[in-house]
Amino acid sequence: xxxATSGTQTALEATASLYAKVKDVIPPAEWTLFADDIVAIQRxxxxxxxxxxxxxYQTPEIFHGVADITxxxxxxxxxxxxxxxxxxxxxxxRFMAETAKILNPTRTVLMPxxxxxxxxxxxxTAEDVRTLRAQHPGVPIVAYVNTSAxxxxxxxxxxxxxxxxxxxxxxxxxxxxxxxxxYLARNVAAQTSVTVIPWEGACEVHERFTPDDVATWxxxxxxxxxxxxxxxxxxxxxxxxxxxxxxxxxxxxAAHRPARTxxxxxxxxxxxxxxxxxxxxxVRPCALCPHMKRITLKGIRKALETxxxxxxxxxxxxxxxRHAIERMLAVx
Length: 332
Ligand code: 13P
Ligand code: SF4
Prior knowledge:
The chain has helices spanning 6-14, 16-22, 28-48, 60-63, 73-82, 94-103, 126-135, 149-152, 164-170, 182-189, 211-220, 234-237, 246-256, 268-276, 297-306, 315-331, and strands at 50-55, 69-71, 87-91, 108-110, 141-144, 157-159, 175-179, 195-198, 225-228, 242-243, 260-264, 281-283. The protein has 332 residues and is α/β, with parallel strands linked by helices. It folds into three domains: 6-116 and 292-306, NadA-like (Rossmann fold); 121-203, Rossmann fold; 206-283, NadA-like (Rossmann fold, 3-Layer(aba) Sandwich). The strands form three sheets. It has a four-stranded parallel β-sheet, sandwiched between helices. Strands 6-5-7-8 form a four-stranded parallel β-sheet, sandwiched between helices. It is globular and about 65 Å long. Residues 93, 118-120, 146, 203-205, 231, 266, 289, 291-292 line the site of iron/sulfur cluster (SF4).
């Protein structure tokens, strides 16, 4: 490792207590590359009166290094709604930034990288939803928050992975349409008597886990606790000890402190939890979300320096999308 410059040395000293927390998941040489940006971001946050919301899939230097609030989609939506900061930086993907803007339209909401999309959100359009409605007259449409603002504007209510069953049952109807994740729809259908009509979307990260993978990991690591995100195929969820949103999985780990665990979800989340719970051994197969990984410290620093890229949602779309999101927040 090259010797640190005096500026970097100062930044390393300023971030020493942060590093103590993540030292087992970030090598010292990498932290040397991060420290300057972390110090600059901490300063810029004060200057801009900015708040950084980070999803559980962000890398540890973001999650533990600069985020003010971390959580799952539901928690980030709630926090965005009540945020008083002038600027909200969304360390997450586009639908999360749009949701923040829709719920708190007077704030500047920044996306550090406009390419941070989502395979689920990309799998359905507003036109597709209108077609579904025409095909199933009178059947309410529930949209996973992993959708564009235009899609949310066409549906009756939103849900997240943490409240999907509750939302579906709150409607008090025999059948619902659920878009766009076919696996979330089937996982919810398995828990309720409501008939769930799915759309054929899938998450490119979670759809790859297979029952064979789970069997192999269990054989390799006896006593392993397996947790699954409900975007995984139902055959995989059926083999897990617990299934829930990213926040619900974190809460499960906090409560149960398994000796060894495997999270069937995006792998940065395991790194973030490993820093929080050194007593838990995480089996960490690589399952990266390429969209979440568009967000970097350098991107966040630039976003705060230049106030890029502000998210906008046309008023007419935002008003209708807000109705679907707020209806969800009222139920959940
Ligand atoms: P959570 O709401 O459970 O955090 O999930 C968001 C997501 O994108 C999962 O892939
Ligand atoms: Fe979308 Fe899957 Fe990435 Fe989550 S992990 S943001 S659902 S592509």
